[in-house]
Specification:
The protein is of the alpha/beta class. Among the domains are: 83 residues, Winged helix-like DNA-binding domain superfamily/Winged helix DNA-binding domain (Arc Repressor Mutant, subunit A); 32 residues, no CATH class; 209 residues, Type I PLP-dependent aspartate aminotransferase-like (Major domain) (Aspartate Aminotransferase, domain 2, 3-Layer(aba) Sandwich). Helix content is 42%, strand content 11%. It contains 17 helices and 14 strands. Strands 3-11-10-9-8-4-5 form a seven-stranded mixed sheet, with helices on both faces. Strands 12-14-13 form a three-stranded antiparallel sheet, with helices on one face. Strands 1-2 form a two-stranded antiparallel sheet. Strand 4, helix 11 and strand 5 form a beta-alpha-beta unit. The structure holds pyridoxal-5'-phosphate. Pyridoxal-5'-phosphate binds next to helix 10.
Amino acid sequence: MHSLLGDHVLQRLQQETSGTLHQRVFRCLRYAIVEGILAPMARLPASRDLARELHVSRNTILSAYEQLQAEGYVDAKTGHGTWVVPHLPDAFLKVAQEKANTVHPSSTEKKMLSRRGASLVGYAAASPYQWGAFVPGAPDVTEFPHPIFSRIQAKLNKEPQIEQLIYSSAGGCPELRSALADHLRVARSVHCDAHQIIITEGVHQAVDLVCRTLTDIGDDVWIEDPGYWGVRNNLRMNGVQMRPLPIDQHGVVLDQLPKGSPKLIFVTPSHQYPLGSHLSLERRKQLIAIAREHKSWIIEDDYDSEFRFSGLPYPSLQGLEEDSPVIYMGTFSKTIYPALRIGYIVVPKALYSPLRVAAAELYRGGHLLIQRALAEFIREGHYEAHIRRMRLLYGKRRKFLINLISRYLGEDFLHEYDDQSGLHIILKLPSHCDDVAIASSALLYGVKTRPLSQYYLFSHARAQRGLLLGFACVNEKDMMMAFGMLLQCLREFGIEKLN
Ligand SMILES: Cc1ncc(COP(=O)(O)O)c(C=O)c1O
C-alpha cells in the first residue's frame, strides 16, 4: 500500500529531473514540507518504510533525511524518529523561486487562472524528459545531417528575400509547400497540390487550427481511445465533446459508434497511437463512408508513418478515394527533430482559403527562412536519404529491444497489435499491474517510460496496462543498461519471466 506521502513523492519525482537520486528525493520531501503536505510537527515515515514504497535503497532515504535536517526542515532524535520543525527556515524562499519553474502551479497560482486555463494545466501531460532510454517517440536528433542543413541555411540567409522577413499570409513558405506536395504525392499517395497545403508549427498547431475553424463549443468529436494526449488536451481547450472509439488489432473499431454526428473524427490510421495497429482497408472505406454520411471531417494524423520496418509503407487514408473528406496532417518532428516545430496540413481545396486566412489571423505565420531551407533540403534529396538511413538505424534498434524483451521477459510482454512501425513499442503488462507506479519507479532508476493506462480518455478497468518504450534515440549499449534497470524495477513489482 502507498501512503499519501509515498504517492506524492513518486509523482513529484517525475518533475525533479536533475541531480543524484537522494538529492531528488530530498527536494520532493522539502516540497512536501513547504507546501504543507507534511504539516509542522508531522512525523516522517520510517526510512525503511519509505524506501520500500519508493523502491529505493534505505541509504537514499537516510541521505535525504540528513539533508533535510542539515537545512533545518526536520528534526530527529535517535529512537524517536524524524519530524517536521514547527517553523520553516529561510531556505523556504529558495524553494519558492524554484517552484516558479515547475510544471504544476500551486493552489494560489491556480486561483489566478481561468477555468479552462486551470483545466489545461491540470491535465498537463507533456513530460520534462524528451531524451534518453526509453522516451517514446523521440528520434535520434544527433543523427540529423546538421552540416548539410547549416550549409543550405547559411547560403539562403546571406541574402534573404523580403517575403521571407515579413508576416506570411500564404500558409507558409511557397517553396516548402510545393516541395511537400511533390514528396507527399509520391511517398504517401496523398492527393494534393501546393494550394492545399498549410504549414503549421507541428501537428499540435494544426489540430488547434482545424478545431477553431471547423467546430463550435459543445460539438461532438470522435477520438481514438487510447489516443494521443496532445490532441485530447487541444480538443478540451476548444470546448468540444470528446467521444471515444475503441481500438483493436485492425485499428479503430467502427461497429458501435457513439450517438449523434461528429464534426471531426481523429484517427492515426498508419500506426495507431499508442497501441500500434494499422487501420485495415475495409475499415478505411467504412470510416470514409461514415464521415460522408455525417458530413464530418476525418483528421488523419500521420505522425510517424515514414518508419515502417517491414514491407512497404502503407498509403495514406486521404489518398484512398477522390475527394475524400479527409484533412491530412504530418510533421517533421519525427523525421528531422521536434524543436524544428514544423508540420503541415493538406486540406480539401474548398477549405484551403478559409483555413489559410484563419492561420494568418491566429498565428501570424513566420519562420520562413528556415522553411525555405527545408524546401531546399527536400529538393536536393537529403530528406529522403535521411529517412532511409534512419529507417535502417531505428529498425536495428527496434529489433534489439524486441530481442531483449523476448529473451528476458518473454513473448507475452510484446503487444499483439504491433505492426512493426513507429518509434516506440509497448511492453505489455499483466492487467492487474499499476503501470503508473511502475513508470514512476522506473524513473528512479533513470529509465523514462510512459504508462499505457494514461493514454485513455477516462480511467477504467478496460484500460490496458503497459509501458511505452521509445527505442529510436538510444544506442544498443545504453538500451541494454536501461533495460537491465527496468528489469530490476519490474522484479520489485513481482513481474518477471515465467519458466
Ligand atoms: C500521435 C501524435 N501526433 C503528433 C505528434 C507530434 O506533434 P508535433 O508535430 O506537434 O510535434 C505526436 C508526438 O509525439 C504524436 O504522438
